[in-house]
Amino acid sequence: MNQPADTATTVGKINPDVLTFTEGKDPVLDLALAEVDCIGTAAHVTMLSRMDYTPTLFTDDQRRAVIAALRDIIAEARAGRFTITAADQDVHLAVERRLTERLGDLGKKVHTCRSRNDQVAVDIRLHVRNELNALQGELAALAAALVALGEAHRAIPMVGRTHLQPAMPSSIGMWASGYAEMLLDDAYPLEAAYKVNDLCPLGSAAGYGVPLPIDRALTSDLLGFARPLHNVFYASCARGKDEAILLGACVQIMLSLSRLAEDLILFSMPEFRYFTLPRDLCTGSSIMPQKYNPDVLELIRAKAALLIGQSTSAAVILKALPGGYNRDLQDTKELYMEGLRVTRTSLRIMRLMVERLTVSPDRCRAAFAEPGVFATDRALELVASGMPFRDAYHQVRDHLEDLRGMDPDEAIAKKTHLGGTNGIDYAALRARAETLAAEATARQAAIDATFARLMAD
Ligand code: ARG
Q: Which is catalytic among the residues 92, 285, 286, 385?
């Protein structure tokens, strides 16, 4: 059988099937990293140009020439004109090729003292940092929308359920602001993921450093990271771990969204109709003319399953992976990119739903027709007049019909303790959402300013 001719790449001749297999989706996925790869390169070259070393690795003029060319490549990437060929294999070698086409021998120097392992690790962290700020903004916006929904309907009673059975009087305010608080707490693991990600691996090279006195603290500062990862071997091992931690945080958000979606599907069914979903956010049936289906919410439920899969896949790729770079790590790239995209889109689409759904106070109150839902409140009233709780419990249980006619509005007004139906601090929850949004905006503005300084003439 004839062997196909090997394909010439920047790093040697490779069997075409092997090349296709090993590069996988990198030529497409890496397009998302083109801009940050240029920024990482700008920081690296700036650091090399400031090194007190003979011979000079980069003069200041050479640094400026490289940065000017990188600016052009960023413009190409933004215009969708930057391409990664099969021979490039990935964005790192594609950028080097473009620089060499533009700058000749100068372009061939940018790989001095670094490796692609180094580059991909820093690119991912730069990319994740931007994405996490955007994600946190979406999370804060949805939490704020839920707080607003709750506050607007703070006095509308809603049957509170355990095991899905009527349990005790609750309110739309409690339900909606409860989900808001769940999402606000999901911001804690997200914050941890941001902190772990905000560390600079650059200068690790292939994972073992270089024999020249590079300034790793400088590259970290130039890129606006909190600090460099210290041990360069660990810096290379941290690839994938960063992404797995991030996906873990996204899983928590998606679990919250999935539960909220499930409640909305249930409580917008005709049998309940506490909520009516906006018609243009529902989809129809090709055969049943009457249908308005909550496909959006069903897909959010499914996306939560996908996130669990992506998170688990990343963890399993890392498990028992030997220290140092291994190509397995490449396959964590699509997982984190997809995980971030899905989580962000789900937050946005859920906010549309929450902002525009309508509440039916009549249907909410009608659900209290079955009087058992007041039983615990009545037992505690008896306790308040001196009866031991267990006696009150049995007395109420034996006379459930006596509860008929109890008023759900009164019931929810009585729960004035912290976090009860009449004790929810909507302003505090709103303030938490605002703080999260402001923090994400400020962090991103600082990053943008740092990048602008680095890429300036
Ligand atoms: N595309 C590769 C990845 O994502 C870049 C690093 C390649 N390094 C190597 N030693 N083959 O992992």
A: 285
Atom 3, ligand 1: residue with shortest CA distance: 330
Q: Which two tokens stand for residue 380?
A: 């505690």
Q: What percent of the chain is helix, strand and coil (3-state, nearest 5)?
A: 65, 5, 30
For residue 447, how far is the Cα from the chain centroid? 18
Q: In this structure, which residue's CA is closest to atom 2 in ligand 1?
A: 330
- Nearest-atom index, ligand 1, CA of 325: 10
Pick the residue whose CA is nearest to atom 4 on ligand 1.
330
Phi, psi of 13 (to 5 degrees): -85, 135
Q: 44, 49, 111, 163: which is the annotated catalytic residue? A: 163
Choosing from 90, 321, 332 the residue with most ligand 1 atoms within 8 A of its CB, the one to mutate for a pocket test is: 90
The answer to whether the pTM exceeds 0.85 is yes
Catalytic (active site) residue 285: yes
Helices 241-267 & 172-197 angle (0-180, nearest 10): 170
- Name the amino acid, one letter, at 15: N
Q: What Cα–Cα distance (Å) separates residue 199 from each residue in 71, 192, 390? A: 24, 12, 57
Catalytic annotation on 170?
no
- 147: tokens are 């707080």
Q: How many CB atoms lie within 10 A of CB 398?
A: 9
Cα angle 152, 166, 303; round to 5: 65
Nearest atom in ligand 1 to the alpha carbon of residue 239 is: 12
* Pocket lining for ligand 1, CB < 6 angstroms: 26, 90, 116-117, 120, 325, 327, 329-330, 333
- The pLDDT tens digits along the chain (457 residues) read 577 899 988 888 999 999 999 999 999 999 999 999 999 999 999 999 999 999 999 999 999 999 999 999 999 999 999 999 999 999 999 999 999 999 999 999 999 999 999 999 999 999 999 999 999 999 999 999 999 999 999 999 999 999 999 999 999 999 999 999 999 999 999 999 999 999 999 999 999 999 999 999 999 999 999 999 999 999 999 999 999 999 999 999 999 999 999 999 999 999 999 999 999 999 999 998 998 999 999 999 999 999 999 999 999 999 999 999 999 999 999 999 999 999 999 999 999 999 999 999 999 999 999 999 999 999 999 999 999 999 999 999 999 999 998 999 999 999 999 999 999 999 999 999 999 999 999 999 999 999 999 999 7
